[in-house]
Amino acid sequence: MSDAAQPTAAEVRAAAEAVKAALDRHLAAVERRTGDDDTAVYEAFNALAAAAEEYDELLYDRYDEVTPFEIPGADGALPPYAGPDEPHALSLLIRRDYAVAEPQRLLAQARRVAELDGEADTTGAAGKAGVSPLAALGVLFGEYEPDEIASRHKEFGLEEGDSTLWVTAAEELPEPGEWLNAPFEHVDPERIVCRFDVSSVFDEHEDDHDHEHEDEHDGSADRVAAGDGS
Length: 230
What we know:
The protein is of the alpha+beta class.
């Protein structure tokens, strides 16, 4: 970065002061929290993450130095909720990822389902389900609800990946068929009431956090992690 584009020392100092203020606001929100899903704590955490990220960038640009702060969730943080306080309609947006870990098991289960439905002809649905992964997926997801597949995924040769559930609020239900052509577009982040994420990356973060504490007890810590998303 050229000298002309570098932030001034005053800008770096102002960013540091913003981090201090955000820390105070976050602690105050935590002290006043009313439950596990307190909105004020969530908003204060996001503000702290943004302030810390800004300071880290300016510090590096000006002095070629970095901070030890690592606050997870800043990049994907949701904006403050701006939807109705008393929603008359809700939408659930669900994504679940699976790896096809055992293709032969997938094909066998789909063939069994198709045969039970009376398609014993090898040229019919049962035959296609037994040799085509795409046909097998169509048979299984047509037969079972997504929640049942989630609870029995190993039976179908699947391995769970990441998943997420978003709950969004609205004043009223959309008209029938209104969004069917593009069901997952135009989601307003400010209408998201809550979201629940499942990912192995969270377990990795916890393991890293535990290792850092072990290093601190051994007197060999060389890094400090700040923030836990709560």
